[in-house]
Amino acid sequence: xxxxxxxxxxxxxxxxxxxxxxxxxxxxxxxxxxxxxxxxxxxxxxxxxxxxxxxxxxxxxxxxxxxxxxxxxxxxxxxxxxxxxxxxxxxxxxxxxxxxxxxxxxxxxxxxxxxxxxxxxxxxxxxxxxxxxxxxxxxxxxxxxxxxxxxxxxxxxxxxxxxxxxxxxxxxxxxxxxxxxxxxxxxxxxxxxxxxxxxxxxxxxxxxxxxxxxxxxxxxxxxxxxxxxxxxxxxxxxxxxxxxxxxxxxxxxxxxxxxxxxxxxxxxxxxxxxxxxxxxxxxxxxxxxxxxxxxxxxxxxxxxxxxxxxxxxxxxxxxxxxxxxxxxxxxxxxxxxxxxxxxxxxxxxxxxxxxxx
Length: 357
Prior knowledge:
Keywords: ATP-binding, Nucleotide-binding, Transport. The structure is a single chain. By secondary structure, the protein is an alpha+beta fold. It has two domains: 5-234, P-loop containing nucleotide triphosphate hydrolases (Rossmann fold, 3-Layer(aba) Sandwich); 241-349, CATH 2.40.50.140. The chain has eight helices and 20 strands. It has a six-stranded mixed sheet, with helices on both faces. The protein has a five-stranded antiparallel sheet with strand order 13-12-11-14-20. It is elongated and about 75 Å long.
């Protein structure tokens, strides 16, 4: 069955405020798409609209080649996992898993078989006789995921399902969700503000900002080729370094110039030819900076040890910089540093509209 989800020119208004602006998105059959963005960007609103939990002002939503723009949630052929688990507190895990099947009129033998199969898949067979208050946060979320899986729908929606869990449980359940997607090949739309979840789970990431999609692409494409400054700044931890400057064209090279800093950027693949004196915003990720304990123009502010690597904060040439270094890098605060720039890994943006040049 074709479980493609297509959103066309969607607009959603609340209290005379536009929350979603003429948004279009296609999630292909069996694809895992993550809606990523900061709080208030509209990602959960979009997910709820696809689920049928919100009315739309204009545009259309189709699922499995059916227009479901105004269909009831139960008629859309999908299942949803919520951030808050939403388990029935007086029911056991088994009863929570079985509830939707009972309401749908499934036979007892079928319900038993599907609940046991789902519990086995999620490794919660030993928890089926427990009520939610007897389960840990991770166990409750597994039951919530199982309640969606047991319905055997082709489209699954996840609304920040791991945000209430600690780091270890988030890591475990990320792997579980990815494994489940590989096993069942559902079309999956997943909302999060956590870029690590997005990068590790998604086939494609849709980065949202102010009610629209800024960029959609594979995790590596989003990371290495951000199409706007917002995407470049939002993806990556620590965030990309930015500095304002201009372009100087020589006979044999193209340089980015900012005060006394001059960098050869001749290999940069610009969308349009760069021009003499053109103002640009230069962006470079921390891992593309190599710091050395030499007598250079930069001064160390702080080293954050992260184990295998460390984050180096420094300043110089009237700017602050953040770089990544090997975990054994040490220096005293205030020490003079040198920085080498890998100009094969840079991004240039229009300083006015933030678009990639």
